Amino acid sequence: MSIKHTHEIRDPIHTFIRVSSEERRVIDSPAFQRLRNIHQLATTFLLYPGATHRRFEHSLGVMELASRVFDVVTMKENVLNDDVDRILPQDDHQRHYWRQTVRIAALLHDVGHLPFSHAGEEKLLPEGWDHERLTYNIICSNQIAPLLDNLKLNAPDVARLAVGPKKYKEYAPGNSVFSDWEAILSEIITGDAFGVDRMDYLLRDSHHAGVGYGRFDHHRLIDSLRILPFTRDESLEPALGVDQGGIHGAEALLLARYFMFTQLYFHPVRRIYDIHLLDFLSQWLKGGQFSTKVDKHLEMTDNEVMAAILSAARKPAAAGHDSARRITLREHFRLLYERNPNDVKVNPEAVEAIHAAAQNEFGEQNVRCDVIPAKTKGYQFPVVTHDRRIVSSLDISDTLNKIPPATVGYVFIDPVVREKAHQWLESNRNTIIKEPAGEGDNETATT
Amino acid sequence: MKRLQRDGVVLALIEALRGKGSWCGETHVQKSTYFLQELLQVPLGFDFILYKHGPYSFDLSDALEQMRADRFLTYDPRPYPFGPSLAPDENGELLRRLFAKTRARYQERVDFLADEFASKNVAQLERIGTAMYVTLEDPERTGRDKRAMRIHKLKPHIPLDVARAAVDEFDSLREAVQEFAA
Question: Residue A159: enclosing H or E segment and its boundaries?
Fold first, then answer.
């Protein structure tokens, strides 16, 4: 009987995900198996009961999509000209190496996530640390690097693509510049416009949460992806773009992202649960922070944290009892104020002003604030038209020009003083939301 | 610099570039801000890496998106072959009023940069920006040819002779900044 070298994994989004025996050894490693116990959407299952999916299946999906994109953009008939051909691997060995590197980088891109993913990462890790840095360290550690040797891959190459250029400089300052080819490969995984990380989480989160906003035709979109020299204004730097036939698929992806952020990821109840979770962890963890040591990191999952929350909720003297009780009994803080365009016209920092005034009125312990600034969304990318001109997506898509930035700001209040707080805000709103002070006579510009 | 104060300076730069006739797409703003911060020492606090079309800051890109959300900036559509440019929006006046002192303090440097950069296209900005990046990257790498070779290695689509010209252009600009500062 012959030994099977390719293995199929059933997946609700991509039907089958196929992996080699060597890849399966990486999947079977403790560092990757840990992702079975990290929820993709933190505490979102408290509002959307179906959203119990984990980073494990998301990571498999990202690997699957990464290789599909790699195959499309490196296919000979999809290479537009010599400028693009020059940056591609020039032989089969190199092509195989980079295809495998992209697959494994995509598979491992989330191994550094803390329990409950993003919730409170900035405060729960020492300065200079984030989940990308943990990812980098795990990939280069004894947990993963020897398994990459079996695949004949260089661990730092995998780690570079997994964390991307934005953060890489902080971890490996001596070798921080990405070549054009590495930049394209990294963009395939984590890019603002067409990163497969985003493609998979939109489709998967939408499916599990039971909201339709995240769906788009990813098959059509992936088939239309191209590496294009951005020839406008004579710069020939290559970038990931689309064939004109895929522009509506790209619009659908970027609209899906806008709606998923505004309707699901930034849902105020989801956000306040994250804040209660952060409050709990700050009190429960030794020194108020997670360990950055690889072995300690791998021992900590949502399961350990959730067990501690359930225990603390039952014991009034336990560290973090109040936050644990709010999470388990659904006694979360309620929304008092939400950022809106009219108030922003008067004071762009209206949320912070309301937060400070409410703290003053009701006490710091009864008020919480959450401000999520807008992030780059990658609406601008090259498009090759039917007559082989290369134009900006914003030149040919009115839709992309009009998608507003997604930003939110919330002030939350303890339900015990909720009614009183709403009356107080109604009476004092105009006094609090006034034009900020700017530069007084005593304040000079920083030099 | 606080966020809104910093936004006030970025808005001043965009207004100056537009005033001098720049198309003022995001790439123009990225490269001009890099020079304003690193060469003209305006403390904006953005972190730049060598990435898209030369030095690039993800922080600045996010900040521009937040400025759109706060209605300090908007996209101004321009016909092909020009992409949309960044332009002041309805709340821009608030920043001008609140941070008049800061803007006045840096206005000469902003104007100097706008004079130098407003007429340059993306490819020119990419080359001179990369020339500055490789110069700052290794203070020991002072020779013209070494820097040009480094540019060509990092950005293979920039030919060696064009890279040499970019190094010369950057050195001239640096001298002009030193004279300006004096």
Answer: helix A155-163
Last residue of some domain: B92, B120, B148? Answer: B120
Residue A14: name the closest of A57, A73, A69 by CA: A57
| Residue-number span of the structural domain to which B143 is assigned | 121-182
Q: What is the pLDDT of residue B41?
A: 95
Angle at A184 between CA A178 and CA A185, to 5 degrees: 90
Give the model's confidence band at A231: pLDDT under 50 very low, under 70 low, under 90 confident, else very high: low
Using CB atoms, pick whichever of B26, B62, B126 lies closest to residue A375.
B62
In chain A, positions 111-170, which contact chain B (CB-CB < 8 Å)? Answer: 165-166, 169
Answer whether B106 sits within 8 Å of A445, measured CB to CB: yes
Final residue before a domain boundary, out of B120, B137, B160: B120
Domain match, B81 and B143 both: no
Helix axes of A155-163 and A180-190: crossing angle, nearest 10 degrees: 60
Q: Is B123 on the interface with A (CB under 8 A)?
A: yes
Query: Do residues B110 and B36 make contact, with C-beta atoms less than 8 angstroms apart?
Result: yes
Neighbours of B71 (CB within 10 A): 18
**Interatomic CA distance for residues B147 and B149, integer angstroms:** 5
The answer to whether A412 and A367 have CB atoms below 8 angstroms apart is yes
CA-nearest residue of chain A to B8?
A438
Mark whether B70 and B131 lie in a shared domain.
no
The whole-number pLDDT of residue A134 equals 95
Same domain, B33 and B54: yes
Q: What is the pLDDT of residues A401-442, one digit of tens each?
A: 889 898 999 999 999 999 999 999 999 999 999 888 777 544
Please check whether residue A189 is in contact with residue A161, taking contact to mean a CB–CB distance below 8 angstroms: yes
- Domains of chain A listed by start with CATH number: 6-269 (1.10.3210.10), 333-435 (3.30.70.1370)
Could you give the residue ranges of the DSSP H alpha helices within A79-130?
82-85, 92-108, 121-124
Q: What is the pTM of this model?
A: 0.92
Rounded to an integer, what distance in angstroms lies between the CA atom of residue B121 and that of residue A265? 38
Specify whether B37 is located in the same domain as B105. yes
Best to test chain A binding among B73, B101, B107, B162 (most A CBs inside 10 Å): B101
Residues A32-55: tens digit of each pLDDT? 999 999 999 999 999 999 999 999
* CB contact A434 to B (< 8 Å): no
Put simply, the answer to whether B90 touches A345 (Cβ < 8 Å) is yes
Looking at CA atoms only, how far is residue B102 from chain A in angstroms? Answer: 5
Whether B143 and B182 map to the same domain: the answer is: yes
